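Hello,

I think I submitted the zinc ion job twice by accident. Can you confirm which output corresponds to this input? Input:
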Amino acid sequence: MTLAALFRERQTRNRIIFAALILLLPIVVYFQFFRKKPIPVGAERAVFCTKCKSMGAKIIVDIEDDKDQRNYCKICGGRLRYAAKCLKCKYEFPLPAADSAPPGDAKHTMDKFRFLRDRELCPNCRQEPPDTAIMTPDQIEKKADL
Ligand SMILES: [Zn+2]
Ligand SMILES: [Zn+2]
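Support: Only one job matched these inputs. Its output is below.
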């Protein structure tokens, strides 16, 4: 084998390694920075009472389940929702802020998209997600026993 042939081979190999690294980089960055940590089942979530505006930490199984008594406030019996915070104006609110029915017709994708976006808008300054984020229990300053 000549030296030139070896060089060519090495160059090819380097190119393959380089290409592989280029492909891998976005995946690594994604997992490192953008992937949200999955919330373990049975973990406490930050909740907001839509009636008495108390906030607390509670184990939530399914926040959408109207029959689950854990989704109701122990103080006033109001419906609990996940607590969200606007990163722009620091306003804290239940998510969704108001109970509105989703658009019935699934054909109107834009309506659905708008509905999902609107229910996460900051009720105070109308900031859109992702600047309105669901809070974690340690972000609550005054925890009530909900
Ligand atoms: Zn309440
Ligand atoms: Zn806001």
